[in-house]
Amino acid sequence: MNASDASKLPARLPRSQSFFGIHFDFHATPQDGELGHHPIGPALDRLLRRIRPDYVQCDGKGHPGWSSYPTRVGYPVPGMRGNPLKTWRQVTAKHGVSLYMHFSGVYDIEAIKRNPAWARVSEKGRRDPKNTSVFGPYVDAHLLPQLRELREIHGVDGYWLDGECWAADRDYGRKVLREFRRRTGIQNVPRQPGDPYYFEFSEFCREGFRQYVRHYLEEIHRQCPGVEVTSNWIFSSFMPERVSAPVDFLSGDYNPIDSVNSARWEGRCLMHQGKPWDLMAWSFGSVAPDSCRTTKPVAQLQREAACVVSLGGGFQMYFNQRRDGTIREQHLGLMEQVAQFCRERQAICHRAESVPQVALLYSTPALYRSLKRLFAPWHGEVEGILGTLLALLNNHFHVDVLGEHHLAGRMQDFPLIVIPEWGFLEEPFRRELLSYVRQGGKLLVIGSKAVPLFSKELGIRVQSEAEKKSRWLEKDGKLAGLAGAGLAFTAGRGARIWARWHESDDLKSPSHPAAVTRKLGRGEIAGLALDFGARYRFQKTAQAREIFGALVQHLFPNPAVKVEGSHDVDVMVMKKEGRLLINLLNVSGPHDNRDCYTFDEVAPLGPLTLKIQVAARPRRIRLQPEGRRLSFQWKQGTATVVVPRLDIHAVLEIG
Asked: Phi/psi of residue 20, each to 5°?
């Protein structure tokens, strides 16, 4: 494509301004010898005409390390015919659609096979056959030359680098250990959790990953101006820390199963990071090692999209290319319907901002002291906060998931802060939390590890170590079975026992204090000394939901919105361009059943009665995206409105 031809093409939207995209990949291997043997252009042209995405991502290099395009600096698939990537670039450019490459970074099997010295070294001194060392020459010798070539020769708009933070791990290479000893003075390098200085060594390796990402981002931005790049899952739930590298946007592909809960969680971990963000849905359901995938129906994907766009994010869907690199056109109808669903909501949802209500602490220092891997919390480390989030959402509270770097200095913005089962808090942050309470804030501390951090302020004395057992949480005669860790404690002066737990499912069985509340300055602190969230994550009960909801309601009696009619409704209180936007999301059905890969019906809810706190009588309330005006009553700062039916997602626009 020459300069004259390029000047006649429609402008392409930068990724940092984009909203809707389609992702393709197939992680090419040497067995994919038919790559390029069949035309891609006609099907891609039809897709772009019908779907009109802002961008597409196609396969460049997957985890096996083989490139699915001609390259002089990588390892092209043997037997490839022609230049498939040239077709992708020409057709997307013709339609004014940006082209991004799915490209594996740290995770690069073929690069290690050919260059064993590039591999990460495990704690046992073995070379990692999959993952490169972020401290080694791989980034300059292999990754950056590939990225430059893709821009300079093939004209791509940017990169979605996969296999990055979640693939990185502690590195015991000789040069790494020598540098660790030099910088820290620690001579005995820890090899396993529990060894002295294991956290310090983990932090050293984490900083190595950050420097690796900063380096290639700074270099590719310098050498190829205009490209936009992200590292998959960086500064997300996998790596919940302040943005410290010049990524152009944030992105990740959430779980293909239990996707609604995954999207509800991941979106809240990205939305406050100060960068444009999107999440990717897998268009099919499967659980490894099961390879028998089934495409998700329209309603299932529309709801997954709603989980994301209701939080202000962009949305993309992932479809596999065939092994010859071509597109399966059987999915065009599905893509079209999901795209239309998203576009109908774009103007009112995209880049909307959250209205502070409940802040749920995602503690970076606590997480990084518990992770088995460097970053990815894949071993149960976040089940407590996930379950707490779901319990809050099931009680219609609007929740922001925030780290210390979000909350420090602005705690007073939130009527309620929740500490969900973290066993460590840095002392300056803990003191700021207590100052927040004394000035009128409300603080809820949950779990056998977190409650002892505030035992003095709660007015309790812990009697013994946490014990894992079955117990029944009780409030006002309702019993909720909870198996898990809990603390035995006595309540002292000023501590009001708010709930108890029983030794059996019998109100006459022996009982013990479970939760207390206590006034502290002008505010109030509450402690629930059971690992509630970790249990609620997978074993929900109506009784546990109601008891927990009553405790939160005690601390936060006047949220911005109250809903009557169903507990299967998430409430997101957002604002955009001066408008108050109440998002309602239908979360009913089997979406969290890990044995249910697909479903084609989301049963409608309603009627729903909403009580919305507004300072002045609204001029109108519209149900979006259809624009239907709803009647309402307003009295003493509360607008009461009835939503007759909620299918998947709707927005009440308060004007």
From this structure: -130, 135
**Torsion angle of the four alpha carbons 402, 408, 413, 414, in this order, in degrees rounded to the nearest 10:** 50
Q: What is the pLDDT of residues 113-172, one digit of tens each?
A: 999 999 999 999 999 999 999 999 999 999 999 999 999 999 999 999 999 999 999 999
Q: Are 154 and 87 in contact (CB under 8 A)?
A: no
63 vs 17: CA distance, rounded Å: 28
- Calpha distance 614→641 (Å, rounded): 12
State the average pLDDT over residues 381-407. 98
What's residue 6's pLDDT? Answer: 65
SS3 assignment, position 585: strand
| Closest-CA residue to 555 (of 480, 490, 498, 475) | 498
Query: Hey, which residues does 131 pair with through a beta bridge?
Result: 107
First to last CA, the chain: 49
- Beta strands across the sheet bearing 561-564: 561-564, 608-613, 638-643, 632-635
- Name every residue whose Cβ is closer than 8 Å to that of residue 391 and which is 6 or more positions away in sequence: 532, 533, 536, 544, 545, 548, 549
371: tokens are 């992770």
Q: Can you tell me whether residue 395 is helix, strand or coil?
A: coil
Kindly state the percentage of the chain with pLDDT values over 90: 96
**What CA–CA distance (Å, rounded) separates 138 from 185?**
27
Question: CA–CA separation, 242 vs 165, rounded Å?
Answer: 15
Secondary structure of 315-355 in HEC code, one letter for each residue: EEEEEECCCCCCCCHHHHHHHHHHHHHHHHHHHHHCCCEEC
Q: Which of 65, 224, 42, 216 is nearest to 140 (CA)?
A: 216
CB 274 within 8 A of CB 263: no
Q: In sequence order, what are the residues at sequence separation of 6 or more whose Cβ sits closer than 8 angstroms to the Cβ of residue 198?
A: 190, 192
Judged by phi (left if over 0) then psi (alpha if -120 to 50, else beta), residue 317 lies in: beta
* Res 289: pLDDT: 65
Which phi and psi angles does 131 have, rounded to 5°?
-110, 130
Q: Report the chain's mean pLDDT, rounded to a whole number.
A: 96
Query: Would you state the structure tokens that stand for residue 266, as one six-digit string?
Result: 């991941």
Sign of CA dihedral 388, 393, 398, 401: positive
Cα distance between residue 298 and residue 334, in whole Å: 6
pTM of the model: 0.97
Q: Which residues contact 615 (CB under 8 A, 6 or more apart)?
A: 637
Token pair belonging to 196 = 């002295």
Is the pLDDT assigned to residue 589 strictly greater than 60?
yes
pLDDT digits (tens, 9 = 90+) for 529-558: 999 999 999 999 999 999 999 999 999 999
Evaluate whether 599 touches 300 at the Cβ level (below 8 Å): yes
Contact 550, 477 (CB under 8 A): no
- Under the banding of pLDDT at 50, 70 and 90, the label for residue 4 is very low
Q: What is the pLDDT of residue 330?
A: 96
Q: How confident is the model at residue 5 (pLDDT cuts 50, 70, 90)?
A: low
Paired residues of 638 in beta bridges: 613, 635
